[in-house]
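Record filed below.
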Amino acid sequence: MKSFWLSCVCCTVLGTAATVAAQATGPPNDWENPAVIGRNREPPHATYTPYPDRESALRGAAAGSPFYRLLNGPWKFRWSAQPEARPQRFYEEAFDDSGWDEIAVPGNWQRQGYGFPIYVDEPRDRPLILCEYAHAMGNSVGNLQDYWDVIYANDQVKKVYQNVTATPIDLGAGRLRIGNRFFFRGLDDITLQWTVRGNGEVIAEGRRTDLQVAPQTSAEVVLPLPAVTPEPGVEYFLDLSFRTERAEGLVPVNHEIAWAQLPLPWWEPERAVDLARVVKLDPRQTPETYRVVGSDFTVTFDRRTGEMSSLTYDGIEILQQGPQPNLWRAPTDNDYGNDMPARLGVWREAGARRRIDRVSIKQNSDRDVVVDVEATLPVGESKFYIRYHVFGSGDILVDSRFLPGAIGLPDLPRLGLTLVLAPAFDQLEWYGRGPHESYWDRKTGARVGRYRGAVADQLHPYVRPQENGNKTDVRWASLTNAQGIGLFVEGFPLLNISAHHYTNADFDAGDDKTGRHTFDLRRRDLVTLNIDYLQMGVGGDTSWGAEVHEPYTIPAQEYAFRVRLRPFRASETPPADLGKQKFWTGGTRW
């Protein structure tokens, strides 16, 4: 006799037999039939997944069971405008549905030409009421701003919902337009606090208490901004904060009800670094390594793999592992809901399993060295190129290029580099969006500024381990130890960064969601630093099938990006000063 091992959960279901019987004796319409619409009338039943043996059941990988069937695909469909027009007894096995249409599942039948469309980009003559349009489970609430851009007809949660807006008119002259989205109250009891910042540092500030903007209107406001002579390499923002002048109900006085951040039109190019004046390098070779020695730093490359195997500053080792291509992220709850691990899973080990095809090392001059690495990924014979350009100043320009090797490859979950630093480099500072985590489709509520904190505090404790702690639009970042020695990172263009005392794999439950919790993780004696050119959005429509919106996906096409790495001592050259430098940014010929 063949045995079946079952993995069970309990739920409540309504019996089909009760429904059929009720049609003969109960009310004529299903929506009036208690046997159909009633709740908690049936005893609990169990849904289960059968497995062929005990070992398979313990692994719990439902998709791997020979008895598992995915219901995605074409389904027979018939739409009736009125309930009474529905086909009779269509639920019976012998019912002839040969004349029915087919729709794609998962999908939405209104989008496939049936019934009345419920989307704002299609013609309508009646109001639209949204119900559960954003689902916040795990790392979610992506693309919320996109919904509200539509709601306000092209005009993160608190930021997106705010009822006061600011639009630039002529910021050089301090002119802007304040909009009031409230329906029944003006802004006369709201104070506007404004601050001019340069690279996150306060330059000037002031306040306005005379905002006379009626409900559902806007008005021009002129702020007495200072005359600023732009400093080379400094980015200027006008930060606006709208705050209550008095307590009202549960809202305290000086509570921020809205904010805005507007880039100011002041810019002076960075001062270029004179590479002809940087310190000369002293290359040293062995059959296994190529070592570049500067005045206060040493960088070592593996001649076989091209990997940066060591980076020291004043004799202190910074790295445990050099940059590695990374094209995968730990799946979020939303990712599991839309089968991302199955759809995009070929990229999970693509970087780690790459084949090194070529390593070349060339000394351009006595002040710079170039290391080229060509690798093939085990996904459609795709290529990943890395060029390290080491200068006598200690700067290392890392150019990366991804080239898909086949047509029709799935989207990439992320595209970037991963490094592992020694655990002592546990202080993170960055100039980008913060202070909390943000993502491509969930960054509206994060201000651009300079932030700092312990690496341990960058972990966001979602119930289940998953992708977390990302920072978007990062201009530069640094990781330092207690002595202020560390690694500076700058992006061309802007970066996503995250840093954890865990490996990326620690957050990854595998192909199927498991019962792990974030408190099950054990801190490791390292710092993982992710430096990403792109990471796809987190989504937020549902956690049971909706994929990330197309604008926030990463199609498998050619990409190139540059990262500047620099070991440093903060007491001698603060990272903010390094960020003002215009380092060599010439093109790379592959």
